Amino acid sequence: MAELERALAYLLPWEFSPAWALACLAMVGLYLRGLSRRRRSGKAEGFWRPLAFFLGVVAIYAVTQTHYDYLAQYMFFTHRAQHLVLHHAAPFLIALAAPLPVLAAGVPNRMKDFPGRAIAVRILWPLYRLLQHPVVAPMLFVGLIYFWLIPEVHFDAMLSRQLYQVMNWSMMLDGLLFWWLMLDPRTPEQGGLGYGTRIVVLLAVVPPQIFLGAYLTFSKYELFDVYAVCGRAWPLAPLADQQLGGLITWIPATMMSVLGVLIVIRYLLGGKTDGKLYLYSEEEKDVAV
Fold first, then answer.
1. pLDDT greater than 50 at residue 288
2. Using an 8 Å Cβ cutoff, are 78 and 68 in contact?
3. What is the largest CA-CA distance in the chain?
4. Residue 115 has pLDDT above 70, yes or no
5. What is the torsional sign of CA 203, 209, 213, 216?
6. What pLDDT, in 10s, does the model give residues 217-226?
7. Of 89, 175, 181, the residue nearest 135 (C-alpha)
8. Which domain holds residue 41?
9. Where do the TM regions start and end (predicted)?
10. 178 closest CA partner among 213, 204, 212, 210
């Protein structure tokens, strides 16, 4: 019984964050509400898309609101695994689920016409289009990884609660923007990014991640002394910790791009019928951010 209690204690937040908890709860709540509404109107979502969405949200919660967050703050390789989830795996799953029609259906009607909505759209839309530009998006995607791994910046981020949260939020939000751009269900004719451009972008982000991961893996010097200052959660040699973090930055992260390319090719080849592309319902294709 005591062992079970200790195991369950690891599922509790290390440092409770209302923002992370509310974001995950809101996403799940809106999605469940949308699923129910669409089911009543005769629109079934199937099994795999909701599964991918919930797995993505649960993964975000697991690395930010359980005791895993403690390990991410006191071991470099677990920190890199946390960012692999926040920047790659979880956003990838959420984008793959194409959840916008369901989330839109889950929004209460009174919130859809809130005062100032048109003004907010006019202000935020140009920024969104800039961030989704096929040149800006990959530069930001890779640039954030490099930025937060500058030793001096990383040192400050790991010692400041506020900056630590900014780092994690920036990685998660950028991951959602990038993978939505890559896995957008809309065809190029409907405003989605061209399939060839998506493949080029996905391949373009691979070499910088390989270089960074290899540099961390094969470096003979300890680059992140913050873990020596604060202590490590496990008695692992500093260089071994750094090498494991480098491998996580290198291999699984780049493999996500390969998987993305395969999915885009599937979009292209699997959806061809009489010269047109039919991958999603017309409603899903028309939904834009």
1. no
2. yes
3. 63
4. no
5. positive
6. 999 999 999 9
7. 181
8. 10-286
9. 16-35, 47-64, 84-107, 127-150, 162-183, 195-218, 247-269
10. 204
CA distance 22 to 55: 17
φ and ψ at 114, to 5 degrees?
Answer: -70, 150
CB neighbours of 3 closer than 8 A, spacing ≥ 6? none
Q: Give first-to-last CA distance, the chain, whole Å.
A: 48
* Res. 82: pLDDT tops 90: yes
Residue 140 lies in a domain: yes
User: What's this model's pTM, rounded to 2 decimal places?
Assistant: 0.89
The C-alpha atoms of residue 73 and residue 77 are separated, in whole angstroms, by: 10
- Between 141 and 3, where is the model more confident? 141
Compute the half-sphere exposure of residue 212: CA atoms within 13 Å on the CB side of its CA: 21
Beta-bridged to residue 19, according to DSSP, are: none
- The tokens describing 249, both together, are 């930055």
Burial class for 202, CB neighbours closer than 10 Å (0-12, 13-18, 19+):
buried
Sign, CA torsion 186/192/194/195: negative
Q: How confident is the model at residue 1 (pLDDT cuts 50, 70, 90)?
A: low
Tokens encoding 164: 């630590």
Q: Rounded to whole angstroms, what are the CA distances from 186 to 41, 97, 181, 261?
A: 23, 13, 10, 16
162 occurs within a structural domain: yes
Contacts of 204 (CB under 8 A, 6+ apart): 138
Neighbours of 275 (CB within 10 A): 5
Total count of residues recorded for the chain: 289
Would residue 39 count as lying in a domain? yes
Pick from 232, 231, 280, 221: which is nearest to 96 by CA? 280
Q: What tokens does 280 get?
A: 């999603």
**Phi, psi torsion values for 18, nearest 5 degrees:** -55, -35
Number of domains in the chain: 1
Give domain status of residue 5, yes or no: no
